[in-house]
């Protein structure tokens, strides 16, 4: 049986990440409050942002921007979308 976590994004118990996705306290906070599903969805969105906005993740400004977007994503606030992107329709 896999571990579960009360997911901050979905407000329900869901399967947890198996390891902290980031170093330090930030990684521990994510591990204890973000589900694997929410993290996987964030990674997809982050990749889209990096590619479409041509972010250079080694630049502090890009990392700060992504950190801000990540917090908004997990708090269910409005996040930047890629121009022309239409999310898939749920059946």
Give a count of the beta strands, DSSP E runs of length 2 or more: 2
SSE ordering: EEHHH
Helix content: 40-55%
Residue-averaged pLDDT, rounded? Answer: 91
The geometry reads as: globular
Provide a quick synopsis of the model.
The chain has 91 residues and is mainly alpha-helical.
Write a structural description.
It is a single chain. This protein is mainly alpha-helical and 91 residues long. It has a domain at 25-79. Helix content is 46%, strand content 9%. The protein contains three helices and two strands. Helix 2 (36-52) crosses helix 3. The longest helix is centred in the middle third of the chain and has 17 residues, at 36-52. The mean pLDDT is 91.
Provide keyphrases for this structure.
single chain, 91 residues, mainly alpha, two-stranded antiparallel sheet, 3 helices, 2 strands, 9% strand, Fe_traffick_prot_YggX, iron, Fe_traffick_prot_YggX_sf, Probable Fe(2+)-trafficking protein
